[in-house]
Amino acid sequence: MRNLGPYCERVLNAIGVHTAAELRELGAVNAYRLLALRGHRPSLNLVWAIEAALTDVHWMDLPPETKARLKAELEAPWDAWALLAGDQEEGEEDGGSG
Q1: The domain that contains 54 carries what CATH number?
Q2: Which of 4, 18, 73, 93 shows the smallest number of beta carbons within 10 Å?
């Protein structure tokens, strides 16, 4: 995907995201959150790059409104357990534990 280099690919693979469809389903904000929960240190630039990849624009061309929306989503309360549970369910569907 456009905007996602080898580093992004490696860290996304580390959280179980291997395809564009999986990344689309997860979204930029939840990808960031999963990376943080898994001990990575993602930056806002990574969120911008993922969102830009999902919308097929250069990350530097993301509108300020989109960046503000993403930042607000990152700052909003969220349920880490639900996100991790969803991550586990994905692994089980892929033959992870059952």
Answers
A1: 1.10.150.20
A2: 93
* C-alpha span between 25 and 31 (Å, rounded): 10
Residue 5 φ/ψ, nearest 5 degrees: -90, -170
pLDDT band at 80 (very low <50, low <70, confident <90, very high): confident
Other Cβ atoms closer than 10 A to 11? 19
The domain containing residue 63 runs over which residues?
6-83
- Tens-place pLDDT, residues 5-42: 899 999 999 999 999 999 999 999 999 999 999 999 99
What average pLDDT score do residues 63-89 get?
Answer: 84
Q: How many domains would you assign to the chain?
A: 1
CA pair distance 51, 97, nearest whole angstrom = 31
> Is 88 within a domain?
no
Q: How far is CA 31 from the centre of its chain?
A: 2
pTM equals 0.79
